Amino acid sequence: MVSVTLILLGFSAVGLCYVLWCIIQTKMESRRDLKIPKSFKSSKETEAEKAIREMKEFCPEEDGRTQNVLVIYATEYGFSKEVARKVAEVLADRIPDVAPRIINAVHYNFIDFSKEQMCLVCCSTTGDGVIPTDSKEFYDLMSTEQDRSAPNLKFSVCALGDRGYPHFCRGGHLFHSVLESYTGSKPFVEMKEIDQEDWEEIEEWVEQVAGQVESMSLEEADSDYLEEAIKEGLHDSGDSNYSLANPLHAPLQCKRPLTKVESRDDKETIHVEFDLSGSGLKYTCGDALGIIASNCPDEVNALIEALKCDPQTLVKAPGNDLYLPFEEIALNSLDLKAVKPDFVAAVLGAITSEDDRVYATKIFGKSTLSGDVHHLKANPAFHSFASARFMVDVLNSFPSAKVTPKIVVEHARALIPRFYSISSSPNRDENVVSIAAAVVRYELFDVPRSGVATTYLADRVDELDLVKLYIQKNNNFRLPTDDEKPIIMIGAGTGVAPYVAFLQDREIRRATGEAVLFFGCRHEDKDFLYKTELQQWSDEGIVELYTAFSRDTEKKVYIQHRMEEHGDRVWKLIDSGAHLYVCGDANQMAKDVHQALRRIISTGAAISDKEADAYLEDLEKKSRYQRDVWLS
Ligand SMILES: Cc1cc2nc3c(=O)[nH]c(=O)nc-3n(C[C@H](O)[C@H](O)[C@H](O)COP(=O)(O)O)c2cc1C
């Protein structure tokens, strides 16, 4: 990186060189041939073949490598897999005897730790500080089955996360402590916490691991058992074939508004149904639907305009070796709303005008112009700047910066799927899956902005259009298997969606246990989602409905108030074995509801607040207090 002194002394010369470099770079990109990625997946490939291909990518058999390193990744959106591939690649390149095998934590049941010498775990955190969905069972197994312990196993964890979340890297921490008790030892390389896909930090961990492995001599090991176990044990199960990497293309069957929108303050929520006929996709009430949306073309065009680039410029697509037109990558693969520090650093480093330099100095201070990412990350001004801007706003803030499409692609976050609680029961119609999506629209710097997937569903796809989707299992949000058990469902806004599925399901199964729903929204006549269905179920005695409309009365009334008003009833149900469900906003609603439950239990059972906490913890352990909450 060019130093500050150089920038100040000879900026115009450097700027000119940079412009020329950018032009050459862009032209080279557009001349490159299209490449088929090494890991091209044939449509006939079975699950087992895919897992084995992935596992052996960096340990070809003919190399005769004998020292095994197992690289396990636990991922929600795929980044941890990239980190796993990186560490495996470096180990394989650097150390001739080492055979790094990569495995998704989903396939945990094939791993026999007594046959492994070393494992490297790359694990992200999702939701409100939880382990990636598909890896939860692996973690649960490791933390409960002490008899499968492996005292000779060496391990290290790379924890991927984001400091913006309250539970930074919690998933990695959980795996780290379970590995400590599993092995009875400390990691051979300290756990590394990674904030926002910081490759510099990741490379530091990779270097430390590679350095240590180089100086160690691992015993020769049985390298075949895992492949054999996968071949024997991993069978295609139809629905499990649909995933982020291999989604179902399902026709949108119907779309209807669930709210009345009369002013800009009113909530806009839509019900969307997809046709699953013939797909074999299976789901259970409580699961979420992952929607893989594309960006709004207007936003992509604005970015192209800010870059002053040819939209057809070929750029290496993230996560594989394909070269694709920039416009296509920006539309389908980049999160254009997330501003990473390395992107801002790259833009600042590419400024070519005095005006922009002065403006940047005013915002970030002089030293940040060097383009040093760590400096920028430690600067509070960066965080307030980045959190209020999209990538295009950063470019428009410094119009003289010569930024190429390649720089944008390399410094953008991946566009991740959005998850919506499913509002239908497969027992009612296995060929249909539906969701309720709250449409996100707002203004920033006088420009209308929108949420990616919700406006994709509301504005850019219509009936019969194909939408890419898959199921995200949620085994921690399930109806009791015993239909006689009472249930208490608590949710606000779109948090009611899984309860619509629950009630459909219980209606069909003629469940006899009582069902109580506390539902909250702003206005009864505007955003009472699924009002007709809920009122009908209430009239038919299928649900006992309590509502809180926060903006219909002078004094705001929320669901926790309604719960406390009916505290006796709630306590009686809990005391008789009811299962409790909370769905919706993690920040406010779930916390307030938790406090209300605590008070209800302490009054009902005549115990102290501390004892009520223990009571709730116990309910949680017994899966009688389940939460599906998200940070908005
Ligand atoms: C919905 C969502 C929730 C997240 N929750 C957390 C969190 O609680 N703590 C944290 O440190 N990072 C959190 N992250 C950040 C991710 O862990 C981080 O982006 C990571 O690089 C993703 O890796 P993956 O693609 O392997 O899942 C969250 C990200 C998303 C999109």
Shape: globular
* Average residue-wise pLDDT: 88
Rg from alpha-carbon coordinates: 27 Å
Helicity range of the residues? 25-40%
Low-confidence stretches: 1-42
Spatial separation of the terminal alpha carbons = 37 Å
How many beta-strand elements?
22
Biggest sheet, in brief? Answer: 6 strands, antiparallel
Architecture overview:
The chain is α/β, with parallel strands linked by helices and 632 residues long. It is built from 23 helices and 22 strands. It has a six-stranded antiparallel beta sheet with strand order 13-8-17-6-7-14, with helices on one face. Strands 2-1-3-4-5 form a five-stranded parallel beta sheet, sandwiched between helices. Helix 20 runs parallel beside helix 22. The protein is globular, with a radius of gyration of 27 Å. Flavin mononucleotide binds next to helix 3 and strand 4. One of its GO terms (cellular component) is cytosol. GO terms for molecular function: flavin adenine dinucleotide binding; FMN binding; oxidoreductase activity. This is NADPH--hemoprotein reductase. Keywords: FAD, Flavoprotein, FMN, Membrane, NADP, Oxidoreductase, Transmembrane, Transmembrane helix. It holds the Pfam family NAD_binding_1.
Give a short overview.
Helices cover 39% and strands 20% of the residues. With 632 residues, the protein is an alpha/beta fold. The two termini are 37 Å apart.
What does the secondary structure layout of this molecule look like, with pairings?
Blueprint: H1 4-31, H2 47-55, E1 67-74, H3 79-94, E2 98-104, E3 118-124, H4 136-144, E4 154-161, H5 170-183, E5 192-195, H6 199-215, H7 225-233, E6 248-257, E7 269-275, E8 288-292, H8 297-307, E9 314-316, E10 323-325, H9 326-332, E11 334-335, H10 341-349, H11 354-364, H12 373-377, H13 380-387, H14 391-397, H15 405-410, E12 413-414, E13 418-421, E14 432-438, E15 441-444, E16 447-450, H16 452-460, E17 466-472, E18 487-492, H17 497-509, E19 515-521, H18 524-527, H19 531-539, E20 544-549, H20 559-565, H21 567-575, E21 579-585, H22 589-604, H23 609-621, E22 625-630
Parallel strand pairs: 1-2, 1-3, 3-4, 4-5, 18-19, 18-21, 19-20, 21-22
Antiparallel strand pairs: 6-7, 6-17, 7-14, 8-13, 8-17, 9-10, 11-12, 15-16
The chain binds flavin mononucleotide.
GO molecular function: flavin adenine dinucleotide binding; FMN binding; oxidoreductase activity
Organism: Rhodosorus marinus
Domain Flavodoxin-like: 69-210
